[in-house]
Design brief:
The structure is a single chain. The chain is 42% helix and 17% strand. With 260 residues, the chain is an alpha/beta fold. It has an eight-stranded parallel beta sheet with strand order 1-2-3-4-5-6-7-8, with helices on both faces. Helix 4 links the parallel strand 4 and strand 5.
Length: 260
């Protein structure tokens, strides 16, 4: 069986790529088992860049939104929300992404992060559009907020929480996305999550150009490396790599309403 990959979270507009490199890498990954990529924005500028990539490549779809540490730069709340609302209307925008909370750094006050997380969840509920959530060292607050937004849906990107947190998210109907971190030697907690994670709620991602899996850890990532993540998951779940790729692709297409 042929394996066809959906990379559920990437940043091909990242500054680590020159224009020439970006085009070369994207063409390479589409020739090596990847059919779909969700490219996430972090502010209005990068969201528009994601849309431009989606317009250029059939297999790329765009996420648009404000990343936790980009929220502090918003000076006009109404204007920012209106712009975000407007660009979600583009036919290749399939997610409000990436949004959430990040407590690893103190660059942005937590009250500002929480405010914009909830505002974007409100918008996602109004538009019935899935979201992609960034959750770094903020598992308790993310879960508490999601419990208040029962009509929101989407994925937890590069999940780093515990099995118990994953179980709570699954009860709320959320998808869990697994990155190349699962291949790292110290990924004990994430492996425990994968062991019990239902196949119909699992996605895989690169977070390109970051989080390259073993054996390419430390190098710039790309979507073709998802095969290594899939291999590790297949080993944990005692199933074939092809099934991991195909099931997670079907899940992503269902979540983002993409016709295969």
């Amino acid at each position: 069986m042929e394996q066809i990959i959906f990379d559920a979270h990437a940043h091909y507009n990242d500054e680590l790529y020159s224009d020439a490199e970006r085009n070369e890498v994207i063409e390479y990954v589409f020739e090596n088992g990847v059919k779909f990529i969700l490219n996430a924005g972090t502010n209005i500028q990068t969201s528009k860049e994601s849309i431009e990539l989606a317009e250029k490549y059939n297999g790329i779809y765009a996420g648009v939104g404000f990343y936790p540490h980009d929220c502090i730069n918003i000076t006009d709340e109404k204007y920012a929300l209106n712009i975000l609302d407007e660009i979600t209307k583009h036919p290749k925008v399939v997610s409000i992404a990436e949004i959430g909370l990040d407590y690893h750094y103190d660059d942005t006050p937590r009250d500002i992060q929480k405010k914009w997380f909830e505002l974007q969840l409100d918008l996602s509920e109004q538009k019935n559009m899935p979201v992609c959530i960034h959750d770094r060292e903020a598992h308790g607050d993310v879960l508490e907020i999601l419990k208040r937004h029962k009509n929101a849906k989407g994925m937890l990107h590069s999940f780093s929480g515990s099995r118990e947190t994953a179980e709570e998210l699954l009860k709320l109907g959320w998808y869990i996305s697994i990155s190349g971190v699962v291949t790292f030697k110290n990924a004990v907690k994430l492996i425990e999550v994968v062991e019990t994670l239902p196949l119909d709620k699992m996605l895989i991602e690169t977070d390109t150009p970051y989080l390259s899996p073993v054996p390419n850890r430390g190098k710039r990532n790309n979507s073709a490396n998802l095969v290594y993540t899939a291999q590790k998951i297949a080993e944990i779940k005692n199933m074939s790599v092809e099934d991991v790729c195909n099931i997670t692709r079907q899940n992503a297409c269902r979540l983002f309403r993409i016709n295969e």
